[in-house]
Specification:
- By secondary structure, the chain is an alpha/beta fold.
- The chain has two domains: 9-318, Alpha/Beta hydrolase fold, catalytic domain (Rossmann fold, 3-Layer(aba) Sandwich); 329-445, Lipoxygenase-1.
- Helix content is 21%, strand content 27%.
- The chain is built from ten helices and 19 strands.
- A ten-stranded mixed β-sheet has the order 2-1-4-3-5-6-7-8-10-9, sandwiched between helices.
- Helix 6 (124-140) crosses helix 7 (155-166).
- The longest helix is centred in the N-terminal third of the chain and has 17 residues, at 124-140.
- The protein starts with a helix and ends in a 6-residue tail after the last strand.
């Protein structure tokens, strides 16, 4: 029986595009990219009833699509080599895991596969027209605009925007994953994704200095690590193809992390990445019951709040780890110095729990200024969240290679968790940090403030 199942699975893998038994995403060769491909859009439906074997549908045949449920369209972008997106299967399965919905993969690989980017971009409006016709059929059958969700990657984000414009912003939601920048930067709203293209538009910008779009395009625009170089991605061309696409693709993998239970990435509305790094925006900037916005699938939790703003838009910043699931845990390190003279420098803080787990944060994006009896609040970012901290270590550095070594005299250090504000705050008093020398100590519970 096991052998029979394995044989049937193999058959599914080798079926051609025209075989309805178990259709798969169009796979083309680099030769196809060189000679170019004419546009052909294939819509593949996945549901919890057919999670791994798609059903091909179109505007005259909705198949097993249940119009009473949410329908999420996944629209890929430019495919310069003709290969299927490596993340597509994970995204389909992740969406079906979090909610019982229809997932429609918009396969326009025949059209997106070309070495000439302009040729792929020129086909985006035609793809949008085909999707508009399909959605029109859904609406006739009883679907609601509120239940239509489009996730567009790179060029796919602008395709989603074009569909939204055709329906005058009535679609329920559009998520843009690093919307394409080349040919779109600086274009007017009618020629790109725009906040008015759906009832709610959220965007993740992960490569604003190269392949992605720099300026805000949604109701909420997320900028991981400032939207520039992503941790874990190659910094030079020696990284090969990953150097060119890693930052751009990171938006997809960050979205995927929101579909899993082990990581919820919190973002902080802020005017700039610098202000966020300097700890000026970690309370969301508002007095409200809602928590700070979450990246990815649950970003629409902020939809109603943003509607109250004029305009209903905000930028949000956060940092990530190098590897999946990318979560970073934020703490404030409050330091009151008692040096007679001003000290400028960076702080490295290391936490260790009783089990021996260690996590470290280097707060060195810009020099902190320590003045006598003034509290400096530094935003520390850790890859691990240690529940019970046993020891803390601090290193002070001015960054000077030559010259005198300085001391930083600390009247009080306080450590407080932003992710878990209910946890007790940890303190230490009367410390003297010798420059570039690690000072290890056991923290104590901070005294509660008298009411």
């Amino acid at each position: 029986m096991l052998k029979l199942y394995f044989f049937i699975s193999l058959l599914c893998l080798v079926k051609s595009d025209t075989d309805e038994t178990c259709p798969s995403f169009t796979r083309l060769s680099f030769h196809s990219a060189v000679v170019g491909t004419g546009l052909n859009v294939k819509l593949m439906l996945y549901t919890r009833r057919n999670q791994t074997c798609a059903q091909v549908i179109n505007s005259t045949f909705l198949g097993n699509l249940n119009v009473t449920k949410k329908t999420t369209f996944i629209i890929h972008g430019f495919r310069p080599t003709g290969s299927p997106p490596v993340w597509m299967e994970d995204l389909v399965q992740g969406l079906l895991y979090v909610e019982d919905m229809n997932v429609v993969v918009v396969d326009w690989n025949r059209g997106a596969t070309t070495v000439i980017y302009n040729h792929a971009s020129s086909k985006t409006r035609k793809v949008a027209t085909i999707l508009k016709e399909f959605i029109a059929k859904m609406l006739v059958q009883g679907a609601s605009f509120d239940d239509i969700y489009m996730i567009g990657v790179s060029l796919g984000a602008h395709i989603a925007g074009f569909v939204g414009k055709m329906y005058k912003g009535q679609l329920g939601r559009i998520t843009g994953l690093d919307p394409a920048g080349p040919l779109y930067n600086g274009r007017p709203p009618e020629d790109r994704l725009d906040p008015g293209d759906a009832q709610f538009v959220d965007v993740i910008h992960s490569d604003i200095d190269a392949l992605g779009y720099k300026e805000p395009l949604g109701n909420i625009d997320f900028y991981p690590n400032g939207g520039l170089d992503q941790p874990g991605c190659p910094k030079t061309i020696l990284g090969g193809m990953r150097y060119f696409k890693c930052d751009h693709q990171r938006s997809v993998y960050l979205y995927l992390s929101s579909l899993r239970e082990n990581c919820s990435i919190t973002a902080y509305p802020c005017d700039s990445y610098r202000d966020y790094r300097n700890g000026k925006c970690v309370n969301c900037g508002i007095a409200q019951k809602e928590s700070c916005p979450l990246l990815g699938y649950y970003a629409d939790n902020w939809k109603e709040y943003l509607k109250q703003k004029d305009p209903p838009m905000t930028k949000a910043f956060f940092d990530t780890a190098e590897k999946e699931p990318y979560c970073i845990y934020h703490y404030f390190v409050d330091i009151i110095a008692w040096n007679k003279n001003v000290r400028r420098g960076s702080i490295t803080i290391k936490l260790k729990d009783k089990a021996g787990n260690i996590t470290e944060s280097k707060i060195n994006h810009e020099p902190a200024v320590f003045q006598k009896y003034h509290q400096v609040s530094l935003l520390a970012r850790f890859n691990q969240d240690l529940d019970k901290v046993a020891t803390v270590s601090l290193v002070f550095s001015t960054g000077s290679v030559i010259g005198p070594k300085y001391k930083l005299r600390i009247l009080r250090m306080k450590l407080r968790s932003l992710a878990h504000p209910e946890r007790p705050e940890l303190c230490r008093y009367d410390l003297v940090l010798m420059e570039n020398i690690e000072t290890v100590f056991q923290p104590i519970l901070c005294p509660e403030l008298l009411m």
